[in-house]
Amino acid sequence: MEKAKSKGKLSVVFESDISREYEATGQAKAKRPKSKNEAGTGAKGHLWEFIAIASVPLVLVLGNSMIVPVLPDIREKLGVSQFQSSLVITLFSVTAGLVIPVSGYLSDRFSRKAIIIPSLIIYGAAGIVAGLGAVWNSYAILIVGRAIQGLGAAGTAPIAMALAGDLYKGGTESKALGLTEAANGTGKVLSPILGSLLALIVWHAAFFAFPVFCLLSLLAVVFLLKEPKKTKEPPKLGEYMRQIGAILKEKGSWLITAFFAGSLALFVLFGVLFYLSDILEKPPYSIDGVMKGFVLAIPLLGQVVTSYTTGANIKKNGTLMRWLMNIGLTLMTVALSLCIFLYDKNIYLFIGLLTLSSIGSGLLLPCLNTMIAGSVERDQRGMITSIYNSLRFLGVAFGPPLFSWMMDISHRIVFISVASMALLTLAFVFFLIKPKGQLSG
Length: 441
Known about the structure:
Helix content: over 70%
Structural class: mainly alpha
Number of domains: 1
Radius of gyration: 21 Å
CATH architecture: Up-down Bundle
Number of helices: 17
Distance between the termini: 23 Å
C-alpha cells in the first residue's frame, strides 16, 4: 500500500503511459532525500538565477515585437512592398524555427550555456547588421541581418527552458518555467511600447537596441548561472535520434498534442496583435504611435500576469494542470467565438474579449512548458523542448500573414477560423493529455 502511494506521488502518471511506469522508479525516488530545489523551498535563494534565465526569453521576444511598430517606416523609407516588410518579421521566425532542433541537439551533446552564450552574441551582432542596412537604405542587408538574428534566436529561449529543467525540480522548476513564460509575455507587452518610443529618436533605433539587451542577458547567463555537470557521456547522433524516436513513439499522443496546442496559442496571439495593429490605425479609432503600443499591451498583460501566477502555483500537480489547460482553451474558444459577432460593435468589449483569450493562453502555456520539460531525462530534454519551441516559432511566423490573408476575405472569417481551431485543440487536449497526481522531474 505504501509502495503504491509513493509511486502515485512521484511518478509521471499520464493515463496513456501508466502501463510503462516501473515500480523501481517510484521506490528509488521515495528513498532518495529531496534536494532544496526538489522540495521547492529554495525559490527565494535562486532569485538571481531566475532573473538570468528569464532574461533570455525576454531578449528573444524583443526580436519581433519591437520591430512591429516601425514596419510602416520600413515600407516608406526603403521603398518596399507590404509583403517585403512582413518578411522582416516572418523570415526571423522561420529561420529560428528551422534551426532550433539543431541547437537543441547541440545543447544535449555539449552544454546549455555553450549554445546560449554564442547565440546571444550572434543575435546582438546581427542586430547591428540589420540596423546598418536600415541606415544605408539597403533592404538586402537588412533582411540578411534579420535572417542571421533568427539563427542566433534558435539557441536562446528554447535552450533556457531546457536549462531550467536541468537546474530545478518539483515546484521550483514550475516556478522557473512559469517565470520564463511570463518573461516572454512581458517582452511582448513592453516591445510595442519600447519600439514606438525608440522610433521617436530615429526610426531604426530599435535595431541598435538589440545588442544592448543581448549584452545584459549575456552577462547574467555567464556570471549568475552555474550549469550542472553531465553525469555521463552523451550518445552519438544515431543513438540520440533513436532515443528521441522512442520517446515520441511512447509519449507521442500527448506530446504532439502539447506541441500543437503551444503553437496554436502563439499563432492566435501574434495574429490578433497584427489584426489589432491594423484596425487601430484606421477610422473610427485612428490610434497610432505610442498610444497604439499601450492598447496592444492590454491583452498581452493579461497573459503575462496569468502565466506567472499559473507557473508559481501548479507545483507539478498533474490534476491541476489538466483543469487549467482545459479551462484555458475553453476561455480561448468562448472569447474568440464571441468575437465573430462582436468584433465591430464596441472596441472596449472587443479588446476585453481578446484579453480573455490571452488569459486562456496564460493558463495553458506554463502547464505545457512544465509537462514537456519534465517528460524526458536531461540528455534528451534539449531536443524535445526545441521541437516544441520550433513549432511555437512557426506559429508566430505564420500568424500575421495568415491573418492578413483571412482579413482580405472577411474579418468575420478570421474569428470563425481561430475559434474553430481553439475548439479542435480543446478536444485533443481533453482526450489525449491526462496528467494525474504529482508529476516527476
